[in-house]
Amino acid sequence: MLKYMRKAGSASHTLFNNKYLHPVFGNPDGYGNYIIQVGNRTDIVFTAHHDTVHTKGGMQTVEVVGNKVGLPTQSMSNCLGADCTTGIWLILNMIAHKVPGIYIIHADEESGCIGSKALVKSRPQWLDQVDVVISFDRYGTNSVITYQSGFRTCSDEFGKSLSRILGMGHELDDGGSYTDSNAYKDVVPECTNLSVGYYSQHTNREHQNLTYAEDLCKKLILADWDKLVISRDPNVSDSLYHYGYGGRSYDYWGDYWSNNNTGDHHRLQGEKDDYTELLKSIKDHPQDWADMLLASGITHNDLVDWVAGIYDDDHYWDMR
Question: What distance in Å separates the CA atoms of residue 17 and residue 7, rounded to the nearest whole number?
Fold first, then answer.
């Protein structure tokens, strides 16, 4: 599966979908999402996405060393594509073992979760019955994401219960960026992203821990999903940042000041000063900031996708 470079809309992307998804899911919906229900369970959705951040289509060589799969040193590919091939592999195994639930392989996640946003906007009837959306699209081996783009998408109680039923030592992580489960956060109580064992995603250093993926797969198949705890109210916005309001951030400090002037002048002034200093630093040292972000494995697309979770589509496409 990792041999397919799945730039959205490329011939190899289509070949991959025809080979691995169509025989299981049938035809996609009008937005390119592959959807199937297994058993009678409609309260939980498992998701991944079928596009990758490859800059071109075609086939690539992959290399397995020990328990890790990655790209050979001489590869000209820009990424492995474990994001989100590993998620698809997990879902196909869960379906094969008849784990009840709704399964969705979304389209165009890497372009801003276009497939998942369109699906939620269309509001299919079954969506009203969903309490949980779990994406298999997080790097590392220990994260249960509770916040995406700075906004809460699942409760701590839910995150802890998910960790318990898997029994792999996953921990709550409020540092999520943005993936398909985020598109459901305003209508579904518990929306999270789970570590699937890849690292350095979106780069040519991307690699996948195969042992972890196999262990996680077994745990997902055996998990007692009835023991998940549902407690978040999707109508209540909870942000990590003081300036968040109603699911988005203010564009200018003037808006921030007028809407948050609660009398705590020193706190607000301090945050405004921090903003000014950060803005000056970025303007004065743009190359240093870019080098630091890339060294941390954060690409331009990562930043744009993060912004897409906060601002409207006009801001998103301006940055694209």
Answer: 12
